[in-house]
Amino acid sequence: MADIGGGAGPSVPRKRADARRNERTLLDAAAAAFVASGVDVPVRDIAARAGVGVGTIYRHFPTRADLIVAVYRHQVEACAEAGPELLANSDTPYAALAAWIHRFVDFVATKHGLAEALQSGDAAFETLHAYFLDRLVPACAQLLDAAVAAGEIVSDVGAYGLMRGVGSLCIGAGTDSNYDARRMVDLLIAGLRVR
């Protein structure tokens, strides 16, 4: 019998668009639940937020570690993909950078919700920090380079350093109602402007 697929080997089945959309909805719901209640939130609460049955979650993510890894990767991808979109749709590269940093702050808030699990020593989490750096440092660098090229910001700030600074400003934001991390991040962003 002839090879119908054209000969490059077995094909990997792709998820249908509705299945990908449902998975994104589930991951967004899990991220929100993790931020609100921690990574030990009952699966039924995540299912209720996502509007699916508990079995659907276990079908996609057999273990809690699988779900945590998927949420983390989903959040990293959303943040990384936002960079080029913001550059294309913002009035200036500086505006795109500022908007991206605010998305990064949202990601960091989710990440802090996952921090305890990520530091648990579970082998499933070992590669996540490298994945974070590999995807987000280049996204931030692209935005910084565009804003520098436009003459809008100082040129001596690196992506990694900026992201570390933003992350440091966000520590404790969820536990101290007297601390406004977004305000501190706004001051940092304003400090990048060329005078």
UniProtKB/TrEMBL annotation:
Keyword DNA-binding found: yes
One Pfam family of this chain: TetR_N
InterPro entries to which the protein is assigned, alphabetical: Homeodomain-like_sf, HTH-type_TetR-like_transc_reg, HTH_TetR, Tet_transcr_reg_TetR-rel_C_sf, TetR_SbtR-like_C
Domain HTH tetR-type: 20-79
Annotated region of DNA binding: 42-61
Superkingdom per UniProt: Bacteria
GO molecular function: DNA-binding transcription factor activity; transcription cis-regulatory region binding
Coiled coil: none
Keyword Nucleotide-binding: no
SUPFAM superfamilies membership: Homeodomain-like, Tetracyclin repressor-like, C-terminal domain
Ranges for region Disordered: 1-20
Keyword list, A-Z: DNA-binding, Transcription, Transcription regulation
Record's protein name: TetR/AcrR family transcriptional regulator
Organism: Microbispora oryzae
